[in-house]
């Protein structure tokens, strides 16, 4: 597992003063992504590739693309990640959530042959100091979410996966009353409160 | 950011994140999220679930050489989707994009009510509606599901009051007569998943107006 790999070494801003809270440090994925964003660190990019590309390929194949085309999407997504790294904000999104949305957008653009509508971007305060506790709280939430997903029964996890792979309509998702969505709903809500706190002062 | 009271339901946000919402509805969701911090956070939560699904997928090995190939291409320019358009007056970025940069072209429907159809295909349609104060919102024949997002002013119906940023979601079962509140004209973005019926449109639109 690449999560056991050491984080990249080098003069990364976040490493000189790795934010910790109650003895926890940022996940290696986040550290790699910040090194890509702030230092254009190719080694960190390679590490992100090693971790995400095979999962992304599995994800894209599951959503219906043949293997060869799936690799094209993987390439596109990883290149987009490199070129749009400046937009990555660990206070608001996990690396995996960010890659998920890039991947879905890419697949929809391929299918529709046009850009899908996306919300306005929020203006960042360039002077704002990174808030380690906020980033860690979000990471912790994402960890809980992953373990909650892994604990689900197979058929329950299958429904969740189908929903987020774009195989269910909003009506079908809404008809899944209670069960799988309900299981992760409390987690969503917890994450929601944190995000809401984070977003309330930002304006588009 | 304005305080909105009527949000997009979770099932729609999840379908939007996953990219499985009809185009017209997607524009409404992207517009609402641009106007409402609570829904932006909720969308973020759904993206986090999507990220967790991605991370818990079984890894499928990628071709040998894919990584080297990619690393060699990092400096090449690529075609990235254009950055989302900024807001223009009362129109949030996604509406500006749906208008393709032009100003709304209002077509009269009678009683001072106007519309501008921004998009229509077999999956549904998207339009801007302009309703003078205290006029009824025309029944544009929702055979399926309809989302109405307020961009300016407000309207009220049997289910409550809808101000800027609020979304009303109605299906065939909802019998309602939305009426623009006094004050500013009400401008809405409306999407439906039923195909447009151009020929039947005018009489259907006028029908509820004569009932006032």
* Proportion of residues in helical segments of chain B: 25-40%
Low-confidence stretches of chain A: 1-22
The second-level CATH architecture of chain B is Sandwich
From the spread of the alpha carbons, the general shape of chain A counts as globular
The major beta sheet of chain A can be summarized as: 2 strands, antiparallel
Task: Report a brief summary of the structure.
Chain B: Residues 104-192 form the ChrR-like cupin domain. The complex is a heterodimer of chains A (204) and B (212). Chain A is mostly helical.
Keywords:
heterodimer; A: 204 residues; mainly alpha; Rna Polymerase Sigma Factor, Chain: A; two-stranded antiparallel sheet; disordered N terminus; B: 212 residues; alpha+beta; six-stranded antiparallel β-sheet; three-stranded antiparallel β-sheet; disordered C terminus
What does this structure look like?
The complex is a heterodimer of chains A (204) and B (212). Chain A has 204 residues and is mainly α. Chain A has one domain: Rna Polymerase Sigma Factor, Chain: A, CATH 1.10.1740.10. Chain A has nine helices and two strands; from the N terminus they run H-E-E-H-H-H-H-H-H-H-H. Chain A has helices at 13-16, 28-39, 42-62, 67-83, 95-112, 132-151, 154-164, 170-175, 179-199, and strands spanning 20-21, 24-25. A two-stranded antiparallel sheet of chain A has the order 1-2. In chain A, helix 2 packs across helix 3 (42-62), helix 3 (42-62) runs antiparallel to helix 4 and helix 4 (67-83) crosses helix 5. The N and C termini of chain A lie far apart (39 Å). Mean pLDDT of chain A is 77; it is low at 1-22. Chain B is of the alpha+beta class and 212 residues long. Chain B has a single domain, classed as Jelly Rolls (Sandwich), CATH 2.60.120. Chain B has helices spanning 10-18, 23-35, 37-55, 66-72, 93-98, 198-210; strands at 107-110, 113-121, 124-131, 146-152, 155-157, 160-162, 167-170, 179-180, 186-192. In chain B, helix 1 (10-18) packs across helix 3 and helix 2 (23-35) crosses helix 3 (37-55). The two termini of chain B are 35 Å apart. Chains A and B meet through helix 3, helix 4, helix 5, helix 6 and helix 7 of A and helix 1, helix 2, helix 3, helix 4 and helix 5 of B. Chain B: Pfam families: Cupin_7. Chain B: Residues 104-192 form the ChrR-like cupin domain. Chain B: It comes from Tritonibacter litoralis. Chain B: InterPro entries: Anti-sigma_ChrR, Anti_sigma_zinc_sf, ChrR-like_cupin_dom, RmlC-like_jellyroll, RmlC_Cupin_sf. Chain B: This is Transcriptional regulator.
